Structure formats: C-alpha cells, structure tokens
Amino acid sequence: MNYMKAPVNVRADWTVYEGLGEPVADVHGTENLARLMAAAPDLLEALQALCSSPLHSVAARTELWTEARAAIARATSKD
Q: Is the whole model's pTM more than 0.85, yes or no?
C-alpha cells in the first residue's frame, strides 16, 4: 500500500493506494493518518503471526518480532 497527496478532484488530504492500482481510501487529516492506514494490512499480518505462533524457538520469535517492528516502522516512518 502507498499513500500520497490526494488529487485535486478529491475532497481529501491524502489518498491510500494498493500497489499502483485504484485508490483504496481517501483520508481526511494528516500524513501520519494516511501512513498508518496504508500500513494497516502489514500491521495486522504481523500481529496475527505473533498471536498464532507457538514461538517454540528463539529464531521464530526473533523473525516474528523483526517483522512486527518493520511493520511499525512502515506505519511511523516517512521513508
């Protein structure tokens, strides 16, 4: 998911896109809100993986936490 300034013909501040396709949502508010909405699928996937995994090995825990931290970074970073 990506986000960018909304086109001039849209009554919103930001638009969230899935890939390079059609808009998924128009966001009224700040860039931070648009970034969070664009990262929501990644955040949900990371949380579901953490909650459903038995986490028997250190490697599995490390990988899942790394994925969760990466999703959080996408939701909070301007990069």
A: no
Q: Are 67 and 49 in contact (CB under 8 A)?
A: yes
Amino acid at residue number 41:
P
Cα 38 vs. chain centroid, distance in angstroms? 4
- Per DSSP, what are the bridge partners of residue 16? 3, 25
Report residue 58: phi and psi, to 5°.
-65, -40
Residues 6+ apart with CB under 8 A from 44: none
Q: Residue 39: which residues within 8 A CB-CB, separation 6 or more?
A: 1, 71, 74, 75
**Alpha-carbon distances, residue 46 vs 5, 27, 49, 61, 73 (angstroms):** 27, 23, 5, 12, 12
Round to whole Å and give the CA distance between 48 and 13.
Answer: 30
Q: What would the pLDDT profile of 9-58 be if each residue is shown by its tens digit?
A: 888 888 888 876 778 888 888 888 888 888 888 888 888 887 777 766 77
